[in-house]
Design a protein that fits this description.
- The chain crosses the membrane at residues 12-30.
- Keywords: Membrane, Transmembrane, Transmembrane helix.
- With 84 residues, this protein is mainly alpha-helical.
- Helices cover 79% and strands 7% of the residues.
- It has a two-stranded antiparallel ribbon.
- It is rod-shaped and about 90 Å long.
- The chain starts with a strand and ends with a helix.
Length: 84
């Protein structure tokens, strides 16, 4: 009997009568693997979106701080110009 080597966890006998029975089982297992991979991918994407949002918030805060610092420097320069 010859065996058809599919994924490492399945060895199906290669004959017409024996290969027709396991096909639905094989397809079901394949579908489960695809679903699990999609779940992992969605988890990675969600984490990536969360990190991106966090970084955008940090950039916004830094920009706001730079704006405030620039305004403070501008006021100090105006005051210095008025005094002299």
């Amino acid at each position: 009997m010859v065996y058809l080597d599919l994924p490492p966890y399945i060895m199906l006998p290669y004959s017409v009568s024996s290969i027709l029975v396991p096909i639905p089982l094989f397809l079901s297992m394949l579908k489960n693997q695809v679903n699990q991979q999609q779940i992992r991918t969605h988890g990675v994407l969600a984490e990536s979106r969360r990190q991106t949002t966090k970084h955008q918030s940090e950039v916004t805060l830094c920009t706001w701080r730079l704006d405030r610092a620039g305004a403070t420097i501008a006021r100090a320069f105006e005051t210095l110009c008025l005094v002299t």
